[in-house]
Amino acid sequence: VTERVWWKDGTVYQIYPASYKDSTGDGLGDIPGIISKIDYIKDLGVDIVWLSPMYESPQYDMGYDISNYEAVHAPYGTVADVEALISDCHSRGIRLILDLVINHTSDQHAWFKESRTSKMNAKRDWYIWRPARYGAEGRRMPPNNWRSFFSGSAWQWDEETQEYYLHLFAEQQPDLNWENPVTRKAIYDSAIEFWLKKGVDGFRVDTVNMYSKPPGLPDAPISDPGVFEQPASMLFCNGPRMHEFLREMNQLVLNKYDTMTVGELPHTPDTAHVLRYIGSNDRQLDMVFQFDIVDLGQGKTNKYQFEGYALSDLKAVVEKWQSFIAGTDAWTTAFCENHDQGRSVSRYASDLPQWRERSAKMLALMMCAMTGTLFVYQGQEIGMINAPKDWSIEDYKDIESINYYNSAVARSGNDPAVRDHVMKSIQILGRDHARLPMQWDATAYSGFTTNKNGAWMRTHDEYKSINVASQLNKSDSVLNFWKKMLSLRKEYKDLFIHGSFKGFDMTNEKTFVFAKAFGKDKAIVVCNFTAEEQKFERPGVNGKFELLISNVEGVDGTESVLKGYEGRVYLVN
Ligand code: TEU
Question: Which atom belonging to ligand 1 lies closest to the Cα atom of 399?
Fold first, then answer.
């Protein structure tokens, strides 16, 4: 854990190409737009950029449906633009990792187009085709009862060849057949080596535990057939050959380069199982994302049946994933936003006008004190918040929430109570909240696009009061607090990045108090997750508390009461 490498000490900044900066005026972000912001990115104090998919794609799932791994989505630019971005990052000492989406391709990928032409096609076995089952009265049925993450069956009937193909996500995202070694080799060459040769420094690996399906593709253990979506199915995740496939991916391609890989590892609550993916002596992945924090409050039958959560739940999951690498050769990650999540200020604190800035700073203070590689999502650094609650379903674009909204409302016979509950869940958890255009300034459409009809997605109504330009030169802005915290994280990297974590007063539903320790160095972090003043329990550690930073001006740290949404870091010596 104490080994020093660039991907442990570096902070990662995630960029969503569609929503970062439009340089052509077509209303969609693009690669030259990102390049135009490279000095802003450098000034943030981040070290690595993670670029979400920019590959050629019909965009059913915002680029996570790739039709050519070796080409760039034309409205985003060209391969040469990505090469320019790589060199512009490297010339500033910033590394660039791409998104590796290899559980599935787009149904427009040449491989799938060939595969679906006939059962005898050489690429038929590059995807997962199965004959139909037939019910009692001869009714045609899918090969099993699996449900897609995007609602509906995980199987799509193909009239041409009279078989179904599997798609864990959208029907336009057919799953690749990883059982076929020829397919795996093509993936390694086209999706991975093609970009490593151009100098990318690694990958964020999409759905990294879904490639190995359970043999025989058995029915899911759905207890209640009336439940439209089985709980995010553990059935798809962590199949029997997963570790074998990842070892092969390292041996055949990744190990030839100095790369970093961070895996998206959903639905794996067992820490011992997670450790099997990230032990550095058995190289599969360098680290993974765990989703317990961002999954808080999601419904048991479906994400968009929000059930709420308690602060003690959040504290427990933070402690679990901060502590599980202790004494191992593994590494962990720290994040509370990405392109699939609602905004953290809105979800975990308060986005009310009087609290949103202080909330954003408190969350910055908490995240920058976390062990592991820290990930910051575009807009988090300026305290962007969820879309206003008066947006209608028509203002949303994401296939995941729209499909669920339509299926849940239809299944309920248009019950207004169901519609309202799903809409409320989308207002908190919707993936679109992370995909509103980045808010650069107070000019039209938040300075994201010059298109007079606006951007591909509605701009936040608050962009005039939440934007980069208004914060750059304001010493107490969210942006400058993030920059300060990122520099403190580096200054105290042993404590913050590599230190051990210990929670205190964990059942307290108002405050979060934890200690970080490294050798004899110790720091205490205290956060008030309420708008009311709260006393906090000073942990029983011996030594003098010296205030390092608070997100509230004029605090000297001797106060035994925290103000609303106040966070403090103390050094103990
Ligand atoms: O997400 C994988 C995944 O499991 C998602 O269903 C995720 O759990 C859910 O969206 C959280 O609400 C990855 C990408 O991050 C996502 O954007 C893609 O839609 C998905 O894979 C398919 O590639």
Answer: 19
